[in-house]
């Protein structure tokens, strides 16, 4: 799973995101070719490598070559829908603009369609939003996380006059997201940046657990600040937890009972830690069974394939579970009829179970003629004489 973590120590904007994606490896030729499919004109895309306090970053600027008119939400959605871009890119871009429009509508007490996008409806916002959605798609990034957002402080000038930082629409978009103002008197989180991050990010704060960094890109902002005005975009992946467990289940009411045994054997061979059946009553009072499988998450695909192949089920459900495992060890004891392996379980340093191996007891029972329980009791007695069971 390819993941990006945004380190927003200097805020976030649309052009910073786009610059970071280019620095991560998004080919500029592909970006320009994609933008050429959008039915918009009157702009020039400028990119260059800059340094911000010694950090090399990619700066992206959308320079207008003719006056742009204000656009409504329907205008922007029409531009995106007719672009011929992949479905996932269109859906992502639409979701971002819908979220942005909802924030603007609330701030101005208007309907979605009545909202005039002003600055964020200009060509540069369309390029930033669609370009970011396209870049994430092209780089195979499936999840996005972000740090707390440095929003800046002071006031910003816009079409409605001077507005406090964060601007009202930005503040609306940042609800439920951790952010801070700081001492820099600039707008560091723009409405476009806030719309993109609030729509796409799955979490905010520290890096997600099991995140492994693979490469880093920097997208430059416009301002020259006391701190590096860059967005650090860390590309990596989430390593699967080897100890993460799942319970995988399905309900079955049309399977020959004789087929359960070989199916369960193959599930164990596929990596299942435990497999069991629970009698249930399904719809129309039909007797059935729930097949439950405990397996490591890394074995999900293999176990699912076996379950769907070896049973009559046509679907599975699964969910993560946690467990507490006692420390286990094994020793061998001598009985009057031979050796028996014994499992010792401990929890918090204390012995909680002493269990003779059933197969060993059964084998000795067959050879000596004594009942299995007698052999088991002898093995237990021998085990409790050893210091390991104290």
Automatic annotation (TrEMBL):
Q: Which UniProt keywords apply?
A: Lyase, Nickel
The similarity annotation says: Belongs to the LarC family.
Record EC number = 4.99.1.12
* Annotated source species: Anaerosporomusa subterranea
Function noted in UniProt? Involved in the biosynthesis of a nickel-pincer cofactor ((SCS)Ni(II) pincer complex). Binds Ni(2+), and functions in nickel delivery to pyridinium-3,5-bisthiocarboxylic acid mononucleotide (P2TMN), to form the mature cofactor. Is thus probably required for the activation of nickel-pincer cofactor-dependent enzymes.
Please tell me whether the keyword Lyase is annotated for this protein. Answer: yes
**Protein's name according to its UniProt entry:** Pyridinium-3,5-bisthiocarboxylic acid mononucleotide nickel insertion protein
Q: Which domain of life is it from?
A: Bacteria
NCBIfam families, alphabetized: nickel pincer cofactor biosynthesis protein LarC
Q: Which GO terms describe its biological process?
A: protein maturation
- Sequence intervals crossing the membrane: none
Recorded catalytic reaction(s): these are: Ni(II)-pyridinium-3,5-bisthiocarboxylate mononucleotide = pyridinium-3,5-bisthiocarboxylate mononucleotide + Ni(2+)
This protein's gene is called larC
Which GO molecular function entries does the Swiss-Prot or TrEMBL record give? lyase activity; nickel cation binding
In terms of Gene3D superfamilies, this protein maps to: mk0293 like domain, Transcriptional regulatory protein pf0864 domain like
Q: What class of enzyme is it?
A: lyase
